[in-house]
Amino acid sequence: MPDAQALHDMLQHFDGLDVGRSGATLMPDNTFEVRCAFVGSLHGYAAELVTREIAGLLKMPCLHERLDSGRVAERRYRLERAASGDFLRRMRYASTLPLLKLPSPRRLERVPLVALLSRALATFEADYDHVRSGDVSPSLPVWANCLVSLDPVSFDPSNAAGMDQADFGAASILSTRAERVVVRDLAAQGWLDVLPTRGRGKGRYLRLTSMGIAERGRGAALVRAASQRCRARFDAADVSRLERLLAQVVEGVAVQLPAHFTSYGPGDGSVAGGSFVPADPGPPPIPAHGAEWPVVLRAPGNAAGLSVPSLLSQALTAFAIDYQAAGFSGLGEAMQFLRHVPDAGMELPRARKLGAVTGTTRSTPERHLTAVAEPGTARTPRRRVFLSPKGRRFRDAFPAVLLNTEDAWSGKYGSGLMADLYSTLETMEQDFIEDAPDYPDGTRWFRELHARNP
Length: 454
Known about the structure:
Shape: globular
Order of helices and strands: HEEHEEHHHHEHHEEHHHHEHHEEHHH
Strand content: 5-15%
CATH topology of the largest domain: Arc Repressor Mutant, subunit A
Structural class: alpha+beta
CATH superfamily of the largest domain: Winged helix-like DNA-binding domain superfamily/Winged helix DNA-binding domain
Number of strands: 10
Largest sheet: 4 strands, antiparallel
Strand order of the largest sheet: 1-2-4-3
């Protein structure tokens, strides 16, 4: 249990708090009085919002509040000793104390490689959806990540009847939480039979229904048609060159990655679930990952013959994993949301669109104390969202970490290959669909699959 000095030291290192006037005192009733004085700046206002949110979550009563020109200049809270560890942990989590120092600043002077990869993937997905023509055939992520992986013969030639759910996780490279969701929804739609067990003690047993087998076949036909449309949209030589270059990149990744770009789960936009399991330098090198992310080593020559969307997806996933290995935020969070938030904040509706911030303290950026919303309800007008000290560090690190990751890829795969890959994508860019995103939404396909449930 922390003492008053530990709390005092934390408050002295929280960006936006007035160092000379912030601190903590142990009171005669064995509670702490926590003094939060805020500097007169946007960072001070963000610190006030963060400390208010943490105090609210821990039900810390406010003992005193001092205003200055309409803004809160100081607030004092009572903190029970039993909650002091939680308070210290949350404040530290929102601060820059656990983080690495900012890398040397760099400027983005061209479209990032990851943005070109994302736009190319979005274009192929659009071609797939065009030939799909709004019918009930599977979406591209459902087909690639689920229906193909549920082909037991491709996983185990001796078994043509079905597969254990654990084997499905290994074949699909979906986290346990993602796997549970898609199994539930595919079963609800009549595409999958979920049987209690096959007697081997490995849990549930999965088998595509006749409808599921038919949908797997339709998806394969749609991918072939979309590939033809892709080669008609672009120069065929450029597509072949892209396949060859991406195959070399993917072949260099030691572990298998999902066939189509996906997040760790419906509510977690990271690709591998963070760093609960630390990276293992190997050989073979295993990236840091969440506890539920399956690690399957890539077989030699595995990338040969993969489709364009699968190659793009796996290259994007590999880049996102390498970006996060630098020790800052996930690439998706930085590209889609953090880099767009100035110190002055942004209005809640835009933050909801870019970063899924809800203003309820329950969204991912709020739970992780990366962003905080002004207090209010859904009906409160003009609420704004600000970044915590941690969120600002993630935002400010983004350009350098992104370019450093590109440089690391040039060192790993060769500067010539990376230059060829970039120039090929740049040549194709004029034929990408309009408004293609700079980073794919890996959670969307879960929502779309669930929305089809009867």
